[in-house]
TrEMBL record:
Signal peptide location: none
Molecular function terms from GO: peroxidase activity
Keywords: Oxidoreductase, Peroxidase
Family listed: Belongs to the glutathione peroxidase family.
Pfam families: GSHPx
Protein name as catalogued: Glutathione peroxidase
Catalytic-site annotation from UniProt: C35
Organism: Candidatus Weimeria bifida
Example GO biological process: cellular response to oxidative stress
Length: 180
């Protein structure tokens, strides 16, 4: 199975097949409304506005698995994002990205691009320290580590990059631009 064989539910509970995005560059992001990385919504929306007409999509998949930082309903999450960050990209139903109830799409994404570290800098060190307390073996498994982990899918449906939340959004944008 490939990327286009999966589907997720939108906030209304309707299936959204990934095949709807054939020929487009897609960034799949697990998001949260009350996280230190939540301001990345601003950068995501900016990228969406710049590149959407060139074939770029963002799939926003809210997730409450990381310190309960997305406690609201799908409607409350959508309202928060549109009012605070003026987001226009598609927002899906709040879902799990790890564990027995994880979206099959995430099982696939993680199988294609595993965890390779948080990089360098203060945010990377802080995330490493936090995760070491929660999961001493976090470096050796493909699980999603935190909110705002991003997977980049090219126009052919290949999962070509995984970006941890600590990655500079300019690096993410540069990778998106290269695939357009």
């Amino acid at each position: 199975m490939g990327f286009y064989d999966y589907s997720v539910k939108n906030a209304k509970g309707e299936d959204v097949p990934m095949s709807d995005f054939k020929g487009r560059v897609v960034l799949v992001v697990n998001t949260a409304t009350g996280c230190g990385f939540t301001p990345q919504y601003k950068d995501l929306e900016s990228m969406y506005e710049k590149y959407h007409d060139q074939g770029f999509e963002i799939l926003d998949i809210p997730c409450n698995q990381f310190a309960g930082q997305t406690p609201g309903t799908d409607e409350e999450i959508h309202e928060f994002c549109t009012l605070k960050y003026n987001t226009k990209f598609p927002q899906m139903k709040k879902s799990d990205v790890n564990g027995s109830n994880e979206l099959p799409l995430y099982t696939y994404l993680k199988s294609q691009q595993g965890f390779r570290g948080f990089g360098k800098g203060a945010k990377a060190l802080a995330m490493s320290a936090l995760l070491h307390k929660v999961d001493k073996d976090y470096k050796n498994n493909p699980k999603i580590k935190w909110n705002f982990t991003k997977f980049l899918v090219d126009r052919e449906g290949n999962v070509v990059e995984r970006f941890e939340p600590t990655e500079d959004m300019k690096v993410v944008e540069s990778a998106v631009k290269a695939k357009l």
